[in-house]
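Field: sequence (string)
Field: structure_tokens (string)

Example rows 1 and 2, in order.
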Amino acid sequence: MYKKHGKVMRILLITDLYPIENSGEPLVIKDFAKYWQEEGHIVDVIRPNFLLNTKIRHKKIFKDGVYFEDNIKIMNVNYVTPFLFDVTKKLPKDFAIGNYNLVISHMPSGSMFAMKLIGKCAGIPYVASVHNSDITVLTKPLYKKFFASALKKAYKRADAIAARSSVLADKIKEISPYAEYKTFVAASGINKDIIDPLELFEKKAGHRGEPYVISTVAKLIKRKNVDILINAVANAYLGNYVLRIMGDGEEMQNLKNLVKQLDIEDNVEFTGNIPHDEVLRNLTASDLFVLVSEGETFGIAYLEAAARANIVVATRNDGIDGLIRNGENGFTCDADADTLSILLERIYNMPREDVRKMLLTRRCELLEDSDRTLSKKYLDTALKIIEA
């Protein structure tokens, strides 16, 4: 039986999305582990890598072995086949699943690996998470053929299902008959320290930027739809404006060609990849953040932009939708250049009092739902569902 609510638990976190040595994965799952550890729990990580998938995603491959970062034990294990055989053979000899009070998996490979460890161990509480990658595996024909059955078994076995957004919660409930009454939203927050002072929010609310700065932060790949943003900006009347595109990727040259074709080179700035602190400084100097990408699991960039007093535009029915309430604390929009162009003009011409209300509403929410607060809520909610 696991220990709960203020008592020490041994948590096993299974995911290939856990970074090692600044390997480039998002930090959100690492932050969950960090804050659970700070609450007094013991957190170990298994980082299972299906090597073909790792290479397709252009991720660095680390050697099998045990790594320690921030006093968290990370067991990195590589597999040529997608966990078809006894997965414990590559784990440390002293590993025993019975040592843990709770198992939590993230990403499809994490959940399928977890089932290999605990599928027949009814007494170990288990939380399976839902990312956009899980929905892809369950719905896209190629992935569905090979992996959907194994992933569905994880959701059936799970005592609770942690969807990374309200959109994903709705999707998994539609797909899995086991999800309806045990699914909750495990959203991410940000560190309160990066939220700009109230005085800066008030200053931005008081007058429109000159030039008016629109920002986006993204890996420049197709599904981020930065081309839609460029076309929308080119077709909108935004006075003296700058579009600042932060990030790099395979679409960089195509996007630069589009900017040239639209004859807006004087208004668009490509920064390439820049350090995180420089991203934050640029967001402080920005008025509006727009990212109408598709297939987002969550999107920390939206939160960071809001923390730097930007009005935020996100994609309707994707990722951050649900946390962004259209017209109240930001805007959601279809990934369509004409629709987005109309919305950009509307935001540009918003009365300053409406801008102020929107910015301050979002700031209060960010302060209330910090990364530490939501990490605790994640664990507490999972335990309540398990106990029910």
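Row 2 begins here:
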Amino acid sequence: MPNDDQTPPNDDQTPPPDCHQEEPQFHTAMAHLYRGEMNRMTVWRQRLDTTSNWAIILTFGMSTFVLGSLTVPHYVMLLGLAIVSICLLIEARRYQRLHHSKWRLALFDHNYFANILWPPARLPEPAWRRQLAFDLRRPHFTMTWLMATRLRLRRNYLLLVYFITAVWLTKVFIHPSGAHSICEFYERLALGDLFPSWFVASTATVFILVSSGLGLLTPSEESLEEWTWERNAVRPEPQSVEALAGEDSRKTQRPPERD
């Protein structure tokens, strides 16, 4: 005889019905969620382009200003390199949020819409609803900040770093007059009495080599989206229903009343 006290099966193991068999309310909610996520991705894309545009305008503006005057010191380009690096760090944080939205939209495209358009097709990821629900409850980035920085460095900023470095070396060589020897060119690298030539040359060389290594050794955006889709990112796996319920109950407990 069956036991009435038998524990019901875990909801995580029960496969959800096909999308075309759901109630109309489900499709309405999915449409609003997809539209909101698409708008969120568009906003972060615009913010990403704004940071890149400012970095490009700053680079060409400072290059024209430095090369067009004999009185402007060459270390102005080093300050421009530092400002462009700050723009890179800011843009990396924005790209984390953009990639997060792209991952959510990929869940919709690969599972929800594809299943509606062709119901006999098998879902690429049967647990996509559980993953999306867990991400809506506790959002988590799909890539680290370091990986986002490396990706944006390879995408846009590595060329800006090379361009600023070339303008800086050109400024040192031609102003106030052309250098007649390598020793004279080396002595011009010094920043007054503050930083000697060897310090400026060594730090600039290390910065260029590190930037080149981080940019060139970074995987492409297409391959990056593939390994993110395969769940090899920094996102934690969804917890069980019991664990989520216990955590919510602890958060909603009333604090003890003071006497």
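free_text_note (row 2): Residues 23-237 form one domain.
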